[in-house]
From TrEMBL:
The entry's keywords: Glycosyltransferase, Membrane, Transferase, Transmembrane, Transmembrane helix
Keyword Transmembrane helix: yes
Coiled coil: none
Membrane topology of this protein: Multi-pass membrane protein
Listed transmembrane segments: 219-248, 526-552, 564-585, 597-620
Source organism: Acuticoccus sediminis
Gene Ontology, cellular component aspect: membrane
Name this protein carries in UniProt: Glycosyltransferase 2-like domain-containing protein
GO MF entries: glycosyltransferase activity
Domain of life, per lineage: Bacteria
Listed InterPro entries: Glyco_trans_2-like, Glycosyltr_2/OpgH_subfam, Nucleotide-diphossugar_trans
Subcellular location: Membrane
Domain annotation Glycosyltransferase 2-like: ranges: 359-549
Keyword Cytoplasm: no
């Protein structure tokens, strides 16, 4: 494939911005043969790189384009290998020249949109807008990378098509369509002023942590070589302590919740505060209409809602879907500037920068919140002191009986959101937030610095930061219906991302462990370690236990030999861990009063926990190889009920 074409594809897809160095090497390769009508002129490659590069370097590099390929390579080596920001307007202008089509920066399409309802269709090929100028049809397109080879071949075979097609950048599309539907605005990304550099997950380990980890590993290896049984005993004691603490938290959740939900102060419609709803979307055109329908059912004054759909700059398909589906909502389509890391928390920070409400909440594309949820949260904040910074709604799976995996996921969510988190909240301890349907006081959220764009479980990290600043989090009696992964592949992507985020969060907040102890307090520090390390350790320990059972069945020596202490500790951890999990699972099923799940479904837990162990191993791999990569989970694929009854 033409190297210039490859560069264009990288640039428009946003998967990897193209640097000036790469652009010059592409020029060198293209300069080996005469330019053709279907290949961009050499000057157009300059549109791929932004002005963030030193201008004198760019001038020297592109001046070399008229000379031999070796001269261009030499000039390229003097440029930075780091890619500059993506400038879609320049890219699409160059693409239009390549195809021989017209190009519209926006004015022409906006003029058409004022006088007619334009037809917008989206597909994997991109976005196509159709209208009329007089009796002449007008076709404007935002082509996707996958469409470029076929589009180029089509225009080459039928040159007359070039006169009927206009290339438009995504921003021009959303600005034009925004005049009839959502208001479109360009997002801005500012630094997190409330977060110290030591609290960002932009690096996995600090130099001090690297030294500590290396020294600890060396000491453990040496100890295992000298005194293997004693060393294993110490390791098992530590692991058992974590597992027992994790199991105790579940045992405590079995007790009735004596404190219930926090009090509310009834508010008239005129007393309700302005409410900002942030909805981060990336390749989420499927099922968006269901979220929009749920938002239209919210029991909250429409003039006090500030709804923002946060969509990446290069995701024209989702932008088109928002413009098509959200015409009945008073909302904004906020374009998230291109850049790295491409994560949900980075998009949320863009939305927070422009949020107008005194309360901020987050919904995902697959969410169907209880219509009264915003009012319940607002009235809870109104009755509470400023110490209450956030409230979390219950997350509930609404297609729980699709297959055994969705059933396990539904039971797990019921255990967590109906028992464990309410127990933690009732004791006013550190509550790790879920990724959606959490509601914040805007001032507390800004004080905490918003979300860490590098952390893939930004919710858990933010909960710890709020705790360290003296705030607390409560649960409210409201539910959001969620979609569970329906395949093992999708489940592993999501769960390995969660586990990787737990590792990130634990490492970040233990960069200065004494500061964590001082700011969060001893009790919440213990809760933090038990919940984060417990989730990781339980998954690993379960797989290790199953391996030992297999070895015993085969008559092989067990890993820990004949040590009574090791066997006893392991048996204790297994009995307590399995017992509390099974009992809590059965109780959660009965509390939901759902005939779709049998209490015997908890017998699948050991199989489900094997997947947990696999997810932890993937997370460990990712934290080393690609710590900020967001494993995307596709939504809108489950056969969910159209209407969900209220939960009682």
């Amino acid at each position: 494939m033409d190297p210039l074409h490859v560069a264009f594809q990288h640039c428009v897809s946003g998967t990897r911005p193209v640097s000036a160095r790469e652009a010059c090497f592409a020029l060198a390769a293209a300069n080996r043969r005469p330019p053709t009508a279907r290949r961009p002129p050499l000057r157009d490659i300059a549109a791929i790189v932004a002005t963030a590069e030193p201008q004198d370097c760019l001038d020297a590099a592109f001046a070399a384009a008229g000379r031999r390929p070796s001269d261009i390579r030499r000039a390229a080596r003097g440029l930075s290998p780091n890619p500059p920001p993506f400038r879609d307007v320049d890219y699409f202008a160059a693409l239009a020249r390549w195809l021989g089509c017209g190009f519209d920066r926006g004015p022409g399409l906006r003029a058409l949109a004022r006088h007619q309802r334009l037809a917008v269709t989206t597909s994997d090929d991109g976005v196509v807008v159709r209208g009329y100028r007089g009796d002449k049809p007008v076709v404007a397109i935002v082509p996707s990378p996958a469409w470029l080879p076929r589009l180029g071949a089509l225009v080459a075979a039928k040159p007359a098509l070039a006169d009927r097609i206009t290339i438009i950048p995504p921003q021009a599309l959303v600005e034009a369509m925004g005049e009839d539907g959502p208001v479109v605005c360009q997002g801005r990304l500012d630094p997190l002023h409330g977060v110290a550099e030591r609290d960002l997950a932009d690096r996995v380990l600090t130099p001090g942590q690297s030294v500590t980890l290396g020294a600890t590993g060396a000491v453990l290896l040496l100890a295992l070589m000298i005194e293997p049984v004693a060393s294993l005993l110490v390791m098992v004691v530590a692991m058992t302590a974590i597992l027992v603490g994790y199991a105790v938290s579940r045992a405590m959740a079995l007790a009735p919740n004596e404190h219930g939900t926090p009090p509310r102060r009834r508010l008239k419609a005129s007393e309700l505060p302005e409410y900002s709803i942030l909805i981060p979307l990336y390749k989420e055109d499927e099922g968006l209409k269901h979220l929009v329908a749920a938002l239209t059912r919210l029991d909250y004054p429409p003039d006090k809602l500030d709804i923002q759909f946060l969509v990446e700059a290069d995701d024209a398909i989702t932008q088109g879907a928002v413009l098509r589906e959200a015409t009945e909502l008073k909302c904004r389509l906020t374009i998230v500037p291109a850049g790295l890391p491409r994560t949900k928390p980075r998009a949320l920070n863009v939305g927070l920068r422009q949020a107008r409400g005194s309360i901020v909440t987050i919904f995902d594309a697959e969410d169907r919140p209880d219509p009264k949820q915003l009012r319940i949260a607002a009235e809870t904040f109104a009755a509470a002191s400023r110490e209450l910074a956030a409230v979390q709604a219950h997350l509930t799976i609404d297609h729980l009986s699709d297959n055994w995996l969705t059933t396990m996921f539904a039971i797990e969510y019921a255990c967590l959101f109906d028992h464990i988190l309410p127990m933690v909240a009732a004791r006013r301890r550190l509550l790790l937030l879920g990724g959606t349907s959490n509601h914040f006081r805007a001032d507390a959220l800004v004080e905490a610095g918003g979300w860490d764009p590098y952390n893939v479980t930004e919710d858990a990290d933010l909960a710890v930061r709020l705790c360290r600043k003296g705030y607390r989090i409560a649960m409210i009696d409201s539910h959001t219906w969620e979609e569970a992964p329906v395949s093992v592949d999708a489940w592993l992507k999501q769960r390995s991302r969660w586990f990787k985020g737990f590792i990130q969060t634990w490492l970040v907040h233990n960069r200065q462990p004494l500061a964590l102890l001082r700011e969060a307090g001893p009790a919440d520090t213990v809760v933090f370690h038990v919940f984060v390390l417990g989730a990781l350790t339980a998954a690993i320990a379960h797989c290790a236990f199953l391996v030992q059972l297999v070895l015993l069945a085969l008559g092989e020596a067990v890993l820990f030999g004949d040590s009574i202490w090791l066997g006893g500790l392991q048996t204790l951890a297994v009995i307590v861990g399995y017992g509390t999990s099974f009992i809590l699972g059965v109780k959660s099923i009965r509390r939901r009063r759902s005939g779709a799940i049998s209490p015997w479904a908890v017998a699948w837990f050991p199989v489900y926990w094997i997947l947990m162990g696999i997810a932890v191993s993937i997370a460990i791999h990712d934290i080393v190889r690609k710590p900020h990569h967001w494993r995307k989970t596709t939504h809108g694929v489950a056969a969910r009920p159209r209407r969900v009854a209220a939960h009682h």
